[in-house]
């Protein structure tokens, strides 16, 4: 048997394989070097690119840093604005815009332009120590303005702290941030130490108004004479004096009367004479002594004349005091040409001056239209709203927003309260009590629940709520008269009493003497103001 592999051939093949191995290894090494060389270039490119990106990122980081700083500043500003808004909300205030919105529609076109463009106003506006008496309204362009209408009907809600705080809040709300003068008050707010005291609010208002570095400050308070809280009123007057000492401008603003002269179409031929117009204006301004209510009543009286000589005679007879002018107005009412006009005016004033809450126009229209024994109120018996106001010769006014009718000013209310009632109105509470009972006895009022399914028809029977709730109060306030007879007569109307009681139950309102009328308890224990002594 012979071995297939020979030594020489085997050695040759082994050497051949070794050469191939060497060549293969060399090939692999060259490829590796090529690959390594190629990766290094790419890495350098990558590194160069990364370096550029890093530099760009550094620039972006600086921009981001600035943006973050800007955002932080804005956040701080928003936070401060929110804090300042909370501070303003913290200040107690009054609803000072309601009255302004009410009287706005009655403003005459172009009112005040002659004043704002006049030399007298410009001199006062630019004078650092002026405290002149002005006619008209004042302008507040870039300066700060605060205003308030005092309302005698809201005397229970108003006090010196609220009035001054309301004015201060209006002024501060026109600043983008708290001025230096208000910083102490602002710090007190941040410390949550309770509502501000009178002394703090007062001093802050004086300091703020005294600083003219941020523009001038104007404060307008209308009808301050209607504020009848003696001690508080004294404090307010002292505050006004302090503002004057601080060289702050103050203007006692009264209304113009030229508008009413212009509206007097009946006297247009007479009023063409400028001398007469000037005579009217100068006389009334002097007589009114800066009180708009006097000027308003006096101009109405003067314009009620028919000739130029009568106008001059009326000007000479004008009284100066408030109550004397009220009496003059009542004389005008008594001089109305028709008895029906006089009666309507007196009934209107009686109801408004002695009602226990404000009456809507519709309620008053029903009230003055009531006839004893009538089964219903005929629409043709209802006086138009305009006549209710016109025949009262300026003593009453209508709130256009709430549609309530009231006396024009608080002194008028005081005048009627202090008058000898039996001389002027007889017994006003007796008149109102009898009218309320007559209203409740009307067939339509006794049967309202039948046709409305226990939903009282306020529009159809406007006075029903008032009559049902307040007849007993007026009856108790009667000093004399035959009110007992009317109460007994009313309680004999079973349907009327039942309807009255049901009305109160449906509305969940207080019914005077309800238990007495229903016979559910002893009369002496029925109410806090029993009717028992009348029976």
TrEMBL record:
* Pfam families listed in its UniProt record: NPHP3_N, WHD_GPIID
Residue span, GPI inositol-deacylase winged helix domain: 341-420
Gene3D superfamilies, A to Z = P-loop containing nucleotide triphosphate hydrolases (3.40.50.300)
Coiled-coil residue windows: none
Q: Which UniProt keywords apply?
A: Repeat
Q: Which residues form the Nephrocystin 3-like N-terminal domain?
A: 110-248
InterPro entries reported for this sequence: GPIID_WHD, NPHP3-like_N, P-loop_NTPase
Its protein name is NACHT domain-containing protein
Which organism was this protein described from? Aaosphaeria arxii CBS 175.79
